[in-house]
Amino acid sequence: MKDNGDHGGGAGAVDMSDSHEQLMSDGEMPFFSVIMPTRNRPQLFRRALDSVLAQAFDDIEVLVVNDGSADEFLPEYRAMEADYDARVRWYYQPQRANGHGPSYSINTGAQAARGRYLCILDDDDSWEAVDHLQKAHRVITASAATVDAYYSNQRAYSADGEVIAKRLWLAVLASRLPEGQGGEHGVYPVTPEFLLGCNGFPHLNCTIIRRELYLGIGGMDEGIRYECEVDLYLRTLDAARLIIYNPAFVARHNVPQAALKNNVSTSVTRIEKRLSQIAVYQKNLVRATAAAIRDDCVAKLSVLYKGLAREFVVNGNYAIAVIYARMALALRYSIKWRFYSFYLGLRARVRG
User: Fold this and answer.
1) In a 10 Å sphere around its CB, with 0-12 CB exposed, 13-18 middle and 19+ buried, how is residue 308 labelled?
2) According to the 3-state scheme, what is the secondary structure of 262-286?
3) By three-state DSSP, how is residue 186 classified?
4) Which domains does the chain have, with CATH numbers?
5) Which of 89, 20, 15 is nearest to 52 (CA)?
6) What are the tens digits of pLDDT across the range 236-291?
7) How wide is the angle at C-alpha 289 spanned by C-alphas 272 and 308, nearest 5°?
């Protein structure tokens, strides 16, 4: 482990080793534990943290997990500790060339958390609705049954600050909700089948999950760096008994600039992204107990295999393209794709 030096600033600063360690301190259990992974982005992170502490609900703790930021950024993070109250606890992971990844960092926070429910906020995003946690608390505590997961929506913004008009993630589901049946809070109990009725998913910024359930399903998969939140989502749907959907927009997601290569989604190639997505859906196809989740995995895998086939056609590699085309065909048969697979096989033989 590389020594990052004296972290100063407060008793809440803790240096984390490579193994997860549950760190508890005295005091009552907060209702929400907000986990904020961050790496090399102190200025953006401060904005995200301010949005958490601006919430109208204050029965929270905030766990900042610094994923081994470079030496040039550490002083700004350390200086920040003195600016915030005791609700914020700071954890520093050892430095590694590519960090430990979001899954590891979030799991570190979850292990150290004391709250009944876990919330997660990326360091380059923010919560825009100041009543987000207040409303979630009212809904959860008013429920006769235990709420396992609470999902809402977020808006996406481009690098120049413009709203991306396309409906992303779960936002499309709002038009499918039964009108006038959201109760006094405007939220809905939903099933995995309903949520999987759109191609989106709730980003971690608008996900609240019962800590006991999170730990019970093993938390985030630390072997997945790209779309690890999709894997968590599918496993949560498979395990949860009561899921609440709030169609309101509570968070702001700033779409990373591809040229900066400072985000998981911008630092890998398109083929690498597809391979990571395939790993997520293959895993959940094997492990899920709910038929709706397995069906969703089959549909997504077929689309991903078709995408890879097309990628390799563009690259002129027909021998690999036909393999993925046949895998897609095996999952979702169609006459059109059968003929396309046959065509790719002929091209592969011609090319030798």
Assistant:
1) buried
2) CCCCCCCCHHHHHHHHHHHHHHHHH
3) coil
4) 13-267 (3.90.550.10), 279-351 (no CATH)
5) 89
6) 999 999 999 999 999 999 988 755 545 555 567 888 899 999 999 999 999 999 99
7) 20
